């Protein structure tokens, strides 16, 4: 599912895209899981499939997401949950891995989106950037039901996120890089992503207007393209050629 052989970072992007779209990969195999997602996609992800696939194709590797929801019925077949007769709410959320070049461009664009909270961290934890309170969780899902207090099942917790990043980065190695010989180009590509990429979460606090997160991400990607700086430029420059990495 994840590639018998990887020749470039774009081969990794393709695996993520196939997981989202349900299309078969280059080996003719359907990608039904990723190291961070054991199951097939949740129903609500279908609302974002095309947008997610488009940014994964360009190297923004998403591992969690949810659409904005403003007062939908708790019985809604796609986004509903909880007791009957209630109303549910969600803030748009994206969690993804990205290259150093994308991260730098993202930090520049984020100033234009004050309603978006962000948390960005590298594998080592030496870079930890956020515009959130260091300890205060952000509610991203809640529901209002008859005769009950407001129920808040999902938060983005900055402390938990910083702990989770250790496992999130580790899975690149234990579940994916380990499939290949340590001397192979495939192993090096996955290890390079593991060691140089950033883990990012974005929360759009304006759940009434809608979801600006894809607009934000695409603005970053388009700006990088106009500057003739591909998403993977920083990473590919330090990757060896297939011949130089052969044992």
TrEMBL record:
Residues 226-240 have a biased composition (Polar residues). One of its GO terms (molecular function) is methylenetetrahydrofolate reductase [NAD(P)H] activity. Residues 225-247 are annotated as: Disordered. GO terms for biological process: methionine biosynthetic process; tetrahydrofolate interconversion. InterPro entries: MTHFR_C. Residues 1-222 form the MTHFR SAM-binding regulatory domain. One of its GO terms (cellular component) is cytosol. It holds the Pfam family MTHFR_C. This is Methylenetetrahydrofolate reductase. It comes from Geodia barretti (Barrett's horny sponge).
């Amino acid at each position: 599912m994840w590639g018998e052989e990887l020749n470039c970072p774009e081969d990794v992007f393709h695996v993520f895209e196939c997981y989202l779209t349900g299309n078969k990969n280059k080996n003719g195999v359907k990608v039904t899981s990723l190291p961070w997602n054991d199951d097939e996609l949740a129903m609500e992800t279908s609302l974002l499939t095309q947008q997610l696939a488009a940014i994964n194709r360009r190297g923004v590797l998403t591992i969690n997401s949810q659409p904005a929801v403003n007062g939908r019925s708790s019985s809604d077949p796609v986004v509903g949950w909880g007791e009957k007769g209630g109303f549910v709410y969600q803030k748009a959320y994206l969690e993804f891995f990205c290259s150093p070049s994308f991260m730098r461009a993202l930090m520049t664009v984020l100033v234009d989106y004050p309603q978006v909270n962000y948390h960005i961290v590298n594998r080592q934890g030496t870079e930890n950037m956020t515009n959130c309170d260091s300890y205060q969780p952000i509610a991203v899902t809640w529901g209002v039901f008859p005769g009950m207090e407001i129920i808040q099942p999902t938060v983005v917790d900055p402390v938990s996120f910083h702990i989770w990043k250790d496992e999130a980065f580790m899975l690149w190695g234990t579940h994916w890089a380990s499939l290949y010989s340590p001397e192979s180009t495939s192993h090096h590509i996955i290890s390079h992503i593991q060691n140089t990429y950033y883990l990012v979460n974005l929360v759009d606090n304006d759940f009434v207007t809608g979801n600006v997160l894809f607009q934000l991400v695409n603005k970053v990607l388009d700006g990088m393209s106009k500057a003739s700086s591909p998403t993977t430029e920083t990473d590919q420059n330090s990757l060896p050629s297939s011949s130089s990495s052969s044992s």
